[in-house]
From TrEMBL, chain B:
Keywords tagged on the record: ATP-binding, Nucleotide-binding, Transport
ABC transporter domain ranges (all copies): 9-243
Protein name according to UniProt: ATP-binding cassette domain-containing protein
Record-annotated membrane-spanning stretches: none
Superkingdom of this protein's organism: Bacteria
Length: 223, 248
């Protein structure tokens, strides 16, 4: 099998995969970053049950979690221009992934916040902390440590979800592989490169995340 | 000593219920500056709930809590303000697990009271020295024993310079050999004239620290007496019964 591979073709395709990996990384980076920020803000609002806004966020979470990313992307890319809102493919992809990731991150943070013990919260209240100070100095640092495993899982999830952006004409890894197969019929080589590319992206990230998980857990709880 | 100083806290007809269940049914209590009030009573009689009401951790359903002319049972209480003056240490009050001892103590003084860092730090270190834990100032709570944590929780409350301190069974979850070191800190405070309300199950401690004993049962106060009086000749049968169980 290995002998039969066209190594020349593989070498020639590498730059294409390199570009696509770079694109995937870029999309994932921004989507993850924005999702985390959204998640942080939304989870605090939900935790404190801020009237009115909480309801809207709850609705957003339902919408985001119960529609396929593909549909969300189509809506952004093909639907919105009809009402005069045109975004580049990259922007659409980042917005779409953030729309999806934001709800996952919100749930992850919120789970962490709710796991912070009542006595820690009351300790904070009893020294006169305001609700925002309580969130900032007591609840969030602890919630963050508790949430790291699910935040990490979401990070990987979002990175993998980028594989769908080919649907809005972005030359991501999936699209590159599809094109190569379509043009040169080098299915085995193209797929091998595709799997390798994702492994190269995801594996180190997984390792770093579980290291971070242990590290933070120890810093916060000492076990 | 009793009822001679300035009246700090006056509770009148305080009522608290959880759902249908009335847990405090008309508490009347006055606390005078410099006085140590010890609350005794069987489990579930509402001692913790009373303290929690005084610190705004439980909303109340009736009555008045007057503190410097302000009604803490009323609407729109500025609890942030009040909590800086009524310090509180609870049975399982954890220190903030992600902060060092010093950061735990300084969070209130720096972020709530916005005090000068150098001055607050000096006070924190001086208080830590007083409870014999200055050398642990950079430790994390997980590196401390239960007794050490509780002494630091007391320092954390004291560093806000409160006018009244509330203690709710601060030694209840400690190993016996650590109870003493915590009670000694509270005794030290009593000697300095700190106004305190103390809920405890340590009878010997209650006797020696209290200026008076408040005995509660089933959500109301049955009896208020000086320790000597209370432990030798309680006025009510219920108190007698309670003491019998403890002196068994
Ligand atoms: N959050 C709550 N919800 C419902 N009931 C509660 C709540 N907190 C306390 N209670 C009830 O109120 C009553 C008084 O409780 P409280 O904790 O004040 O008693 P206590 O005198 O402190 O008892 P202990 O000596 O065991 O600490 C109990 O019957 C308890 O079950
Ligand atoms: Mg109690």
């Amino acid at each position: 099998m290995v002998m039969n591979l066209d190594w020349e073709f593989i070498a020639e395709s590498l730059p294409l995969y390199g570009d696509a990996m770079w694109l995937t990384l870029k999309l994932a980076f921004w989507a993850i970053l924005f999702s985390l920020v959204l998640g942080l803000i939304f989870s605090v609002i939900l935790y404190y049950k801020v009237k009115g806004i909480s309801f809207i966020i709850q609705a957003y979470i339902e919408l985001s979690r119960n529609t396929p990313l593909l549909v969300q992307l189509f809506f952004l890319y093909y639907g919105l221009p009809k009402v005069g809102l045109r975004m580049s493919e990259v922007t659409c992809a980042i917005v779409g992934l953030t729309f999806l990731g934001g709800s996952y991150m919100t749930e992850a943070f919120r789970g962490g916040m709710e796991a912070v013990s009542r006595t820690q919260v009351e300790s904070g209240l009893s020294i006169g902390l305001s609700r925002t100070q309580l969130a900032r100095y007591v609840i969030l640092p602890q919630a963050f440590a508790i949430s790291i495993p699910s935040l990490g899982a979401n990070v990987i999830f979002l990175l993998k979800e980028t594989s769908i952006v080919g649907a809005i004409a972005l030359m991501d890894l999936m699209n590159v592989a599809k094109d190569l197969i379509g043009m040169h019929y080098k299915t085995a080589e193209s797929l091998l490169l595709l799997v390798a590319a994702y492994l190269i992206l995801v594996l180190p990230l997984s390792v770093v995340l579980s290291w971070l998980e242990r590290k933070v857990r120890y810093a916060e709880f000492g076990d | 000593m009793i009822n001679t100083g300035e009246l700090l806290l006056e509770v009148e007809g305080l009522q608290k219920s959880f759902g249908e269940r009335l847990v405090l049914s008309g508490i009347d209590l006055q606390v005078v500056k410099g006085e140590v009030t010890v609350i005794l009573g069987p489990s579930g009689c509402g001692k913790s709930t009373l303290l929690r009401c005084l610190n705004g951790l439980e909303p109340v359903q009736g009555g008045r809590i007057s503190y410097h002319g302000q009604d803490l049972a009323g609407p729109q209480v500025n609890w942030r303000e009040v909590r800086q003056r009524i310090g509180m240490v609870f049975q399982n009050y954890e220190l903030f697990s992600h902060m060092t001892v010093l950061d735990n103590i300084l969070l209130g003084p720096l972020k709530v009271q916005k005090r000068e860092p150098k001055e607050a730090r000096q006070q924190a270190e001086q208080l830590l020295g007083r409870v014999g834990l200055l050398d642990r100032k950079d430790a994390y709570p997980r590196q401390l024993s239960g007794g050490q944590k509780q002494r630091i929780a007391i320092v954390r409350a004291l560093c806000m310079n409160p006018e009244i301190m509330l203690f709710d069974e601060v030694t209840a979850s400690l190993d016996p050999e650590m109870v003493r070191e915590v009670l000694d800190v509270i005794l030290g405070l009593a000697e300095q004239g700190m106004t305190m309300i103390i809920v405890t199950h340590e009878m010997g401690f209650a006797k020696s620290v209290g200026d008076r004993i408040v005995f509660m049962d089933q959500g109301s106060i049955c009896e208020i007496a000086e320790p000597q009086q209370f432990f030798t000749q309680p006025a009510t049968e219920r108190a007698q019964h309670f003491l019998d169980i403890f002196q068994y």
